[in-house]
Amino acid sequence: MSEQERTFVMVKPDGVQRGLIGDVISRFEDRGLKLVAAKFKQIDRDLAEEHYGEHEDKPFFDGLVDFITSGPVMAMVWEGQDAVRQVRGMMGETDPAESAPGTIRGDLGLDLGRNVIHGSDHEDPGSNEREIELFFDDEELVDWERVDETWLY
Ligand code: RTP
Ligand code: MG
Asked: Which top-level group of life is the source organism from (predicted)?
């Protein structure tokens, strides 16, 4: 059994506006991941620029920051075995058009910008811890047991 780990997930403004928060949360609950923290918030530009700092030299950076600050997001931390990779698999590819049916972006995403969800990147080790710290204080991470823990992922 691989180690439990935590990953940062965010329903982006398009997902919030389209009423998809519940659908996204259900998928992770059904998969057997455990919710550790959640926060519904409006991101300011400073936070957006720091969160997406790896892309600051890309031509799409300003548009990405405009989009992610265009309305509230649902920021969350989910825990489970290999959770970073697990969640990325459930998300699909960056472009919804390239994402398999059954994935969040494949089922719900509209286009490369409006792709519903962010998740920490398993190809960028440490991004999960960095992003969790950026959005949550330590005391906001809830230590609890789900009654059905034996059946969790
Ligand atoms: P995210 O960080 O939001 O979870 O998405 P990701 O890892 O799948 O993709 P990433 O390469 O980190 O890109 C971050 C977001 O930037 C937008 N993007 N636009 N125009 C473009 O070529 C382009 N490439 C990326 C996407 O909205 C992507 O989610
Ligand atoms: Mg990324």
From this structure: Archaea
